[in-house]
Amino acid sequence: KNPNNVMGGLKATINNPKVSDEAKESAKERLNEMAESGYGRKEATPDLNDNRVVGGYKATLHNDRVSDEAKAHAREMIDAAGVSEDSQSRSYTTEGEEHENHVLGGYKGTLKNPNVSESAKGHAREVLDEHDAL
């Protein structure tokens, strides 16, 4: 069976209002078991050196719709990656800085785009000047 189809079917079961609570709970348990066993992944062990993988586990910790078991697993994986509390908070700052760089890059692109109005270019210059990015 295609792992994506199986997991997708379980997720659909969980979100289907016509399905009983017992069936939904059973689907959640199966999904958690599949996730813990690595079912559907190319590798049973994720590459913890990949920031996106660790970021996904961090997001799991803050998602109210995720089970306590899944959150515990996410904590274990973050710990296994050697990520400390300090580096976690720094990574959020880094992501914020990265976002700001992308936004400022967009404004720089606005200045070079011949299809953009002069008023939009003026606004872009103001924003870039405020951020010392000119």
Automatic annotation (TrEMBL):
Stored Pfam families: Con-6 (PF10346)
Biased composition (Basic and acidic residues): 19-45, 68-78, 120-134
Region (Disordered) residue spans: 1-51, 68-134
Compositionally biased region (Polar residues): 85-94
Signal sequence segment: none
An annotated GO cellular component: cytoplasm
Alphabetical list of InterPro entries matching this protein: Conidiation-specific_6, UPF0654_domain
Protein name: Conidiation protein 6
Source species: Dendrothele bispora (strain CBS 962.96)
Taxonomic lineage: Eukaryota, Fungi, Dikarya, Basidiomycota, Agaricomycotina
